[in-house]
């Protein structure tokens, strides 16, 4: 059992290191800009402004304008950004590398994706696993912050659906593993 855990831990580390080489990511090269699409609305926003909203609730003038244009409540957006999904990093990594995990990543990639809309599965897997390594929790803001491209595209009208998909993944894992 200990060997198995060590193996999966090393596998997780290798995935993260591979992501660094494939996508050229580090904390310095992680997503700096979010390109939001909400229905016909498309705007660019620095990740730092979303981080500020998620951490303090403070809304920059630019973000406030965007929220007004899309008729979104800042507190509701903050709640979606900060909702935590509890995960075990090793189990998460194994699951995301499975056929079911690939399917879920493809579904979530319809909401969060690369600028070129290519290698979405790999970029998203990297961001999710990296987000979980510190505290065995994943939130949308962490995924955005850890996304391995300078820009991350977010389909705003799909955000709640994406959170629900992450929750379903977590609940499914808990049931499958017999964890409450």
What can you see in these coordinates?
By secondary structure, the chain is of the alpha+beta class. The chain has one domain. It contains nine helices and six strands. It has a four-stranded mixed β-sheet. A two-stranded antiparallel sheet has the order 3-5. A hairpin with a 2-residue loop joins strand 1 (33-38) and strand 2. Helix 6 crosses helix 7 (120-132) and helix 6 (99-108) runs antiparallel to helix 9. It starts with a helix and ends with a helix.
Give a quick set of tags describing it:
four-stranded mixed β-sheet, 6 strands, 59% helix, alpha+beta, 9 helices, two-stranded antiparallel sheet, 180 residues
Précis, in short:
With 180 residues, the protein is of the alpha+beta class. The chain has helices spanning 2-23, 47-56, 61-69, 74-82, 89-96, 99-108, 120-132, 140-145, 159-177, and strands at 33-38, 41-46, 85-86, 112-113, 137-138, 151-155.
């Amino acid at each position: 059992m200990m060997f198995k855990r060590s193996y999966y831990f090393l596998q997780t580390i290798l995935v993260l290191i591979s992501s660094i080489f494939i996508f050229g990511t580090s904390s310095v090269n992680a997503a700096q800009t979010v390109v939001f699409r909400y229905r016909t609305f498309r705007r660019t926003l620095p990740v730092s402004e979303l981080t500020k909203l998620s951490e303090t609730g403070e809304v920059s003038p630019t973000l406030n304008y965007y929220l007004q244009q899309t008729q979104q409540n800042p507190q509701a957006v903050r709640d979606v950004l900060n909702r935590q999904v509890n995960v075990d990093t090793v189990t998460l990594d194994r699951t995301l590398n499975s056929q079911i995990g690939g399917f879920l990543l493809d579904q979530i990639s319809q909401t969060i994706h690369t600028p070129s809309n290519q290698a979405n599965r790999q970029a998203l897997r990297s961001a999710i696993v990296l987000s979980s390594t510190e505290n065995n929790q994943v939130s949308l803001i962490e995924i955005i912050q850890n996304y391995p491209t300078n820009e991350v595209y977010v389909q705003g009208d799909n955000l709640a659906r994406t959170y629900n998909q992450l929750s379903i993944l977590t609940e499914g894992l808990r049931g499958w593993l017999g964890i409450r």
